[in-house]
Specification:
The strands form two sheets. Strands 1, 2, 3, 5, 10 and 11 form a six-stranded mixed β-sheet that branches. The chain folds into two domains: 2-319, Up-down Bundle (ABC transporter transmembrane region fold); 326-533, Rossmann fold (3-Layer(aba) Sandwich), CATH 3.40.50. It contains 15 helices and eleven strands. The chain has helices at 2-19, 23-56, 60-112, 119-133, 136-160, 162-179, 183-213, 220-273, 278-303, 305-319, 372-380, 410-415, 423-433, 448-459, 478-491, and strands at 333-342, 347-351, 354-356, 361-366, 385-393, 396-399, 466-470, 496-500, 512-516, 521-522, 531-532. The radius of gyration is 33 Å and the shape is elongated.
């Protein structure tokens, strides 16, 4: 019971947190549900009671009055329901927009940290889960409506007979318990299904990306088989979850039908004992059935509560931006002592001891897989299992090895720089390293080497004291490599510059070079984090 209470509180709070300055919309939505519940569960049963009693005594005038009153209430409630539905759609729109905005900000931040997550994962967070989390509005409103239904059912019972209040008070906890029976089952299997879905998406994305890189090889059938195998654990979890849900819901439906029959018998017995009129009997039956129907709807919402709760927790972790205590304007410095990094948690990549001070250009050399890019990501702040000490003073900016520019022109990219370049500086760089290119060009249409030159130029524009570049010279023509590297070193003379490089002839351009041994020590590493300062 504690688990379902915590999940429901998190789900109810979520739309209020997302609405922020528009929380009055949620208040109006709940107020509208209060009026609708009062109309259907209080006014309608009482009107029905008086109309039936008037028919029993054959008072046509009173019967006509109550029927006319019922028609007016019916029209008013339907008009109010239309306004309420429009307000609900507007509230859902605001929740989706707010969640998507936060997720988009987190996606750009996480991409900047150099996390090796497929872009489809970020798109799913921004688009799919933002839309799915808007269903928390329905859960919140239905929960409030169930509470209102109980209150109005008690009010109708109190008007008809004090004994009827006891009947409602006894039935309500019974229905609540029956409605929450399948929560633990749904929660357990939904967690398993979410893990299987995440594994399936990662495996499928990796296999699909492998096709474009190995198009000349006959691996399409092999890749299709690998994708098919990745779906099997997810499908198995999905079938198991749906089967357990169907089993629990079927049992709930049988029990709820039995409860409805008991309600009829209890109301009939109450009418006989308390000598209630026929109209009172019908009013109590309608109120009891409406109460049961409301809790049935709530049961359907609670069955999805574990899924919503998991989505909310994942979205919170995803949008929790990396808050570093490092000042962007502090003097940059990096120090490593007895450091070994473990990006996968199963092997150690030893890193030689070094100190990188302002004004120094540090070159990282080593074979493939020796940990050069891993070290840059660790310095930049990506969480990683490690032993030893990695101390970082000052904020850093990372230029990744694989570049994808937004679909804008070069001029827009320059204007978005933290410290915009002067026009003369930009023209000098373009004339020397990108001859024939225009500021109005879209760099996505350039060659890989030309895009690397532009990216290196842009990454020198930020005001962070530590500049990290992962293979900025790969793809650059041989005639421009040394000139470009010397330009980068000159422009970073008051900051720490750490560059991953493979060209042995360019060692002379660096103040210091480090050769990573690339010897992986097979051992499990405790999941500690690198230490930022």
């Amino acid at each position: 019971m504690r688990g379902i209470t915590r999940a429901v509180l998190v789900i109810v709070r979520y739309p209020f947190d997302q609405l922020r300055w528009h929380r009055s919309m949620m208040a109006w939505l709940i107020a509208g549900r209060f009026v609708l519940s009062g109309g259907w569960l209080f006014a309608s049963p009482l009107i029905q009671k008086h109309a039936v009693d008037a028919i029993v005594v054959r008072d046509l005038a009173r019967t006509g009055e109550w029927l006319a009153s019922g028609a007016v209430v019916f029209v008013v409630l339907h008009c109010l329901n239309y306004w309420w539905s429009c307000l609900k759609a507007q509230t859902v729109r605001v929740v989706i927009a707010s969640t998507a905005a936060k997720a988009a900000t987190a996606a750009t931040r996480r991409s900047g940290l150099g996390t090796k997550v497929d872009a489809d994962h970020h798109v799913s967070r921004v688009v799919d889960e933002s839309q799915q989390l808007s269903e928390t509005v329905d859960v919140t409103v239905n929960l409030a409506g169930s509470i209102f239904n109980v209150l109005f059912a008690c009010a109708v019972a109190a008007v008809i007979s004090p004994l009827a209040v006891g009947l409602v008070v006894v039935l309500t906890p019974l229905i609540v318990v029956l409605s929450s029976r399948n929560f633990s089952v749904s929660r357990r299997f939904s967690e398993v299904m979410d893990r299987s879905r995440a594994t399936m998406k990662a495996t499928t994305s990796t296999n699909l990306r492998s096709i474009s890189g190995m198009e000349a090889l006959p691996i399409r059938r092999l890749t299709a088989a690998a994708i098919d195998r990745s779906f099997k654990p997810f499908l198995s979890s999905y079938i198991t979850l749906q089967g357990e849900r169907a089993k629990t819901q079927r049992a709930n439906a049988i029990v709820m039908s039995a409860v409805e029959m008991l309600v009829m018998l209890a109301v009939a017995a109450l009418a006989i004992v308390a000598k209630l009129s026929l109209g009172s009997f019908f009013a109590l039956v309608q109120a009891s059935w409406s109460l049961s129907g409301a809790f049935k709807d709530l049961n359907a919402q609670l069955s999805t509560a574990p899924v919503h709760y998991g989505r909310i927790q994942r979205m919170k972790r995803y949008t929790r931006l990396h808050r570093s205590s490092r000042s962007a304007h502090a003097s940059g410095r990096v120090r490593a002592r007895a450091l070994a990094l473990s990006p996968g948690g199963l092997e150690r990549l030893p890193i030689p001891d070094f100190d990188a001070l302002p004004g120094q250009a540090l070159g990282l050399y080593g074979s493939n897989g020796s940990g050069k890019s891993t070290l840059l990501h660790a310095i930049h702040g990506s969480p990683m299992a490690a032993i030893g000490q990695l101390s970082v003073w000052g904020a850093s900016g990372l230029m990744p090895s694989h570049l994808v520019f937004p679909t804008v022109d070069v001029n827009a990219l320059l204007c978005a720089c933290k410290v915009p370049y002067e026009l003369a500086t930009t023209r000098h760089f373009m004339d020397e390293f990108l001859p024939g290119k225009m500021l109005t060009d879209d760099p996505n249409g350039w060659s890989d080497g030309e895009r690397k030159k532009l990216a290196a130029f842009l990454h020198l524009a930020h005001d962070r004291p530590i500049v990290l570049m992962d293979e900025p010279l790969s793809g650059v023509d041989a005639a421009s490599r040394e000139r470009l590297l010397r330009y980068l070193v000159e422009r970073s003379r008051d900051r720490v510059l750490i560059v991953v490089c493979h060209d042995i002839e360019l060692r002379k351009c660096f103040s210091t070079t480090i050769e990573l041994p690339g010897v992986a020590i097979s051992s499990r590493v405790s999941p500690s984090l690198t230490t930022p300062f």
